[in-house]
Design brief:
The complex is a heterodimer.
Chain A (H helix, E strand, L loop, with lengths): L2 H26 L14 H23 L20 H8 L1 H19 L1 H15 L5 H22 L11
Helix pairs in contact in A: 1-2, 4-5, 5-6
Chain B lengths: L1 H13 L2 H17 L5 H12 L4 H26 L10 H47 L4 H13 L9 H15 L2 E2 L6 E2 L13 H19 L18 H23 L5 H15 L11 H17 L1 H7 L5 H12 L7 H5 L1 H24 L1 H7 L4 H18 L4 H19 L5 H23 L11 H30 L1
Antiparallel strand pairs in B: 1-2
Chain lengths: 167, 496
C-alpha cells in the first residue's frame, strides 16, 4: 500500500479515537464521585481518554510531519493468472473490501436463516472471492464443511449455533 | 507440591485431558506448519471449544496448541524456507540449507527432538519455580495489585514494535474498552447506552478472536494471490546417536536460555530462538558452518523457543501478567473459563494448575512422538489450499464469538475488533497492547479505587509498603530502559 494511503488511514484512525474519547468525556460528566473524594465512575475513563487523546495527537503529528520510509520487506510475488470479466477484475482488486462486505452479509444471513443456510451461501461466496472456483471442489468443501461444523459443534460438543431470529 | 503434581498427572491420564492435550498438540502443529497462521490465532479460535469442558481439560488443549504451534513453525521453515511462526525464523537459517542438501528428514528430526527436550526442561522449571513465586505474590494487597497491573501495562512498551507511542495509544484503546459496563467501585452502569448487551461490558472472547483470528483471515484474503515457494522433498526422518550427542549440550543450554527469556515479560519465542542460535554459534567449534546447514543451528533455536513457551507461563500463572501475545490470549482463556489468573489460583484451584503443569510436561512427549511419526502428514498439510483455510477461519471466528453467550451482538463486536486489528496491521500499529489493556484495565481500576478509598486519596500509600516500592522501582526501570531503547532505535533509523 502507498505511504500516502497509510498516512491517511493512520490520521483517520487517530481522529476517530479522539472523537470517541471526547464522547466519553461528555457522557462521563453525568457520573458522580464518591462523596468527599475524586473517585467515581468517571475517574478512570477520563484519565485514560485524556492519555489516549494525547498519544493520538502525537501520532497524527508524526504521521503528517515525519517522512515515511518505505519498509516493505515482503518480497513474495503475486500470481499473474489472468482474470476474465469486469466483475472478477473488481473482485480481485478490492478483495479485502469484498470479504468484509461478505462478512456483514453473512451476519445478516445468520440472523435471517440461521447457521446452516447462511454458511451454505457464505462459504462458496468467500471461496469465489479467494479465487478458488473449481465447481466440484467448492461444492464438496461447502457440504462437507457445513456438515463437519454442525456435527462437531452442535452434536459432539453441544455448542449452540446461530439460529434464525426472524423466521 | 509434589503430590499436587502427581495428582495433576493422575487427572490428566484418567480424564479426557490427555486426549484433549494430544488433539491440541496436533492442531497446534498443523496451525504452526501453515505460514501466516500463528499459535496465538489458534489459541484464540479454540478457546470457545474449551468453554464447554472442565477447565483443566480446556486448558490442557490450549497448552497443547501453544507448544505444538511453536514447534510446527519449524516444519515450513525447513521445507519451504518460510517460517510458519516468527519463532521459527532462526530455524530456517540452517534448517533450509540442511534440507536443500538432501537432509530434510534429519533437519525435521533435530527440530522435533530439540523442541521436545527444550520444552520438557522449560516445563519442569515452570512446575517447580512457579509455586515458589506464587507464595510471595499471595501477600499482595490492593496497592501492590495496582502496581502489578501498571507493571503489566508497561509490557506494552515491549510489545509495541517500532513505536512506543503507537503501542501506548493501542493500550489506551484496550483500557477504554475495559471501562464499559458496571463501574467496579460505585456500581454505576457506565457507557451502556441503555442496552443490556453492554451492562456487563464487552466480552473478552469476541475481542480476542476479532483482533487475533479474524484480522489474520482478512490478511489471508489480502495475501491470497501470493505464490508459495517450492517445497523441499522430505527424506527419512531420524538422526544417529553421534549426531544426537553432538547437539545435546546446545539443546540443554538453549533450554535454560529460552526459559529465562520467556520468564521475563515482554520477550517472546522469536527472541529466545535468536538468542539461543547466537549463543550456539558463539560457543561452537565450527561457527563458519552456521548458515550452511549446521545441526546445532537447528537444535539451539528450536530448544530455545519451546522452552520459552513454558518460561512465558511463569509470570502469567503466578502474577497474572501476560508477557507476550500468546500468553495474553491464554490468560484471556483462563478468564473465559472463570479462573482468575494470579497467585490465588494456586490456593483456590491447585487441581487445575497442577494438571496444567502436568500437561506442559506431557505435551512435549506427545510432540516428540507425533512430530517424528507424523512428519510426512504435517509436510502434506503445506499443500492444503490456503483459500479454504482462510474461509473456515472466518466461520470459526463467528461461531467462537457467538457460542459463549449465544449473542449476535458478540459477532458484531468480533467483526469490529477484526477490522480494527486488520487496519492496525496495515498501518503498523501493534495489536497485543489492545488485549493487554482490556485484560489489565479492570485489575488496575478496581484496585486503584480501593487503594484510594482506604488511604483517603493519599498516594503516599504506594511508598509505604516494601513490595510496592519494589514494583515502583521495577516500573520506573522498565519504562526508562524502553524509552532509551526506542530513542536509540529512532536515532539509528534517522542516521540510515
Amino acid at each position: 500500500m502507498k505511504n500516502t494511503h497509510k498516512t491517511a488511514i493512520e490520521v483517520c484512525i487517530n481522529v476517530l479515537f479522539i472523537l470517541i474519547a471526547v464522547g466519553m468525556f461528555a457522557v462521563s460528566g453525568s457520573y458522580k464521585f464518591v462523596q468527599g473524594t475524586h473517585i467515581g465512575a468517571r475517574t478512570f475513563p477520563i484519565l485514560i481518554g485524556g492519555l489516549m487523546t494525547a498519544f493520538a495527537l502525537v501520532n497524527i503529528t508524526k504521521a503528517l510531519t515525519v517522512r515515511q520510509v518505505s519498509e516493505e520487506t515482503d518480497t513474495a510475488l503475486e500470481s499473474e493468472e489472468p482474470v476474465v470479466g469486469r466483475f472478477n477484475i473488481l473482485i480481485r482488486k478490492y478483495r479485502v473490501g469484498a470479504a468484509l462486505l461478505l462478512m456483514v452479509i453473512y451476519y445478516l444471513l445468520l440472523a435471517v436463516f440461521g447457521f446452516i443456510i447462511a454458511t451454505l451461501i457464505f462459504l462458496p461466496a468467500m471461496l469465489y472471492i479467494l479465487e478458488y472456483r473449481k465447481m466440484t471442489h467448492v461444492a464438496l468443501v461447502t457440504i462437507i464443511g457445513v456438515l463437519f461444523l454442525y456435527i462437531a459443534f452442535k452434536v459432539l460438543l453441544g455448542v449452540p449455533l446461530p439460529e434464525a431470529q426472524i423466521f | 507440591m509434589m503430590h499436587y503434581l502427581l495428582d495433576g498427572f493422575g487427572f490428566l491420564f484418567t480424564t479426557m485431558a490427555a486426549p484433549a492435550l494430544m488433539a491440541g498438540v496436533v492442531l497446534g502443529i498443523i496451525i504452526g506448519v501453515l505460514p501466516g497462521l500463528t499459535a496465538t490465532m489458534g489459541i484464540a479460535l479454540l478457546i470457545p471449544l474449551t468453554y464447554y469442558v472442565a477447565p483443566s481439560i480446556g486448558l490442557s488443549m490450549l497448552i497443547g496448541i501453544f507448544a505444538g504451534g511453536i514447534y510446527g513453525g519449524s516444519v515450513s521453515a525447513i521445507l519451504l524456507k518460510t517460517p510458519g511462526t516468527p519463532a521459527a525464523g532462526a530455524t530456517l537459517l540452517d534448517g533450509y540449507p540442511l534440507a536443500q542438501s538432501g537432509h530434510a528428514g534429519k533437519a525435521i528430526a533435530i527440530a522435533t527432538i530439540s523442541s521436545a527436550i527444550g520444552g520438557l526442561i522449560g516445563a519442569l522449571i515452570l512446575s517447580f519455580l512457579a509455586p515458589q513465586i506464587a507464595k510471595i505474590a499471595v501477600k499482595f494487597g490492593p496497592p501492590e495489585y495496582v502496581l502489578l497491573g501498571v507493571y503489566g501495562l508497561t509490557m506494552i512498551s515491549y510489545v509495541s514494535g517500532k513505536s512506543l507511542i503507537r503501542g501506548l495509544f493501542a493500550g489506551c484503546i484496550g483500557l477504554l474498552i475495559s471501562t464499559f459496563g458496571i463501574d467496579p467501585i460505585t456500581s454505576v452502569p457506565r457507557f451502556t447506552f441503555g442496552t443490556l448487551n453492554l451492562l456487563t461490558g464487552f466480552e473478552l472472547l469476541p475481542i480476542l478472536i476479532g483482533i487475533f483470528a479474524m484480522s489474520q483471515a482478512v490478511e489471508g484474503v489480502r495475501d491470497s494471490r501470493k505464490i508459495s515457494p517450492p517445497q523441499v522433498k522430505l527424506t527419512s526422518v531420524g538422526i544417529s546417536l553421534k549426531e544426537f550427542m553432538q547437539i545435546l549440550p546446545h539443546i540443554v543450554k538453549s533450554a535454560f536460555i529460552g526459559t529465562f527469556v520467556g520468564a521475563v515479560p515482554g520477550t517472546g519465542t522469536d527472541i529466545a530462538a535468536f538468542l539461543s542460535y547466537g549463543e550456539a554459534k558463539r560457543s561452537s567449534k565450527h561457527p563458519e558452518e552456521f548458515g550452511k546447514g549446521a545441526l546445532e543451528g537447528v537444535a539451539a533455536p528450536e530448544s530455545g523457543n519451546n522452552a520459552c513457551v513454558n518460561g512465558a507461563m511463569i509470570p502469567m500463572f503466578t502474577l497474572g501478567i501476560p508477557g507476550e501475545a500468546a500468553t495474553a490470549v491464554i490468560l484471556g482463556g483462563l478468564m473465559v473459563l472463570g479462573l482468575q489468573p494470579g497467585p490465588l489460583l494456586f490456593i483456590d484451584k491447585p487441581d487445575v494448575i497442577y494438571t496444567v503443569f502436568a500437561s506442559t510436561i506431557t505435551s512435549n512427549l506427545f510432540m516428540l512422538v507425533l512430530g517424528i511419526l507424523g512428519a510426512r502428514f504435517f509436510a502434506k498439510v503445506l499443500s492444503l489450499p490456503k483459500s479454504v483455510i482462510v474461509a473456515f477461519i472466518f466461520i470459526f471466528s463467528v461461531l467462537g464469538s457467538y457460542s459463549m453467550r449465544n449473542s449476535m451482538f458478540d459477532i458484531i463486536v468480533m467483526m469490529t475488533a477484526g477490522v480494527l486489528g486488520y487496519v492496525f496491521s496495515v498501518i503498523d500499529y501493534p495489536v497485543p497492547p489492545v488485549l493487554l489493556g482490556v485484560i489489565l484495565g479492570p485489575l488496575v481500576e478496581s484496585n486503584l479505587g480501593r487503594t484510594l478509598l482506604v488511604s483517603d486519596g493519599n498516594l503516599t500509600i504506594f511508598f509505604k509498603r516494601p513490595i510496592s516500592i519494589f514494583f515502583l522501582i521495577v516500573i520506573i526501570g522498565t519504562i526508562g530502559s524502553n524509552v532509551v531503547k526506542h530513542y536509540k532505535a529512532q536515532k539509528a533509523m534517522q542516521k540510515n
